[in-house]
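Shipment paperwork, digital attachment
Item: protein structure file
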Amino acid sequence: MDRYAVIGNPISHSKSPLIHACFAEQTSQNMVYERIEGGIDTFEDQVIRFFSVSSNKGLNVTVPFKERAFAMCDELSARAQTAEAVNTLFMRGSSLVGDNTDGCGIVTDLIENHGVTLSGQRILLLGAGGAVKGVLQPLMEQSPSALVISNRTFSKAEALAGRYNAMAEELNLSGRAEASPLEQLNTSFDVVINGTSASLSGELPNIPADVFVATTAVYDMMYGDSETVFNRWARSQGAGKTMDGLGMLVEQAAEAFRLWRELKPETNTCIKLLRP
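Attachment content:
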């Protein structure tokens, strides 16, 4: 039986095994999908050991290992190269191949599942790690009127915006990314996306409540059995619509499943099944 897994730290909360079990049943695939807790000092060795077993066919990579997975790969998809972060791994012959399905996952979830308009909108993206790197290009491809990256360490947000702006012509991106220190955000946004892992530890990014108004759609890439800390706070500050990352998780998983099994599963059934 073909074996797949998700590796991250923490990982016990991950719904990925349930999602891929749903996909496997739907498409009649003989496979198993498990969780692996990645060691901060042993991640690379764990990946190598996993793929040393011939029946082990693919790994999903989550916080905090996406950039380390990128560095390990022998081959990279175009979107992984752009993001400099990898969330999907598989072998092609003797080569470790990396891809990034996060971007198509969040855009599909926002537009198709939640009816959120991205084109012509002011978007605030919080964070500058692997999760944010993976979604930046697909969000910019939607032609927002502004895309502001803000992070606790401003230099990281500034470097990320600068890198994407330098590639704008090559990537055929019409808009530009901007960077702003968290505490200097002084205007409202149409869409606010939390790409930090703060909700996993019950923390909040240090941003002014002024970014939220009644028409603001808020998306936390994290998810849980109850409302995330970030979404609860955003709603208390006047945000009109809040969404968690469960749909993104399912949509990016569907794309990873397609890469591995050459079949694209239907996602709505799985989202409804997992929603508390």
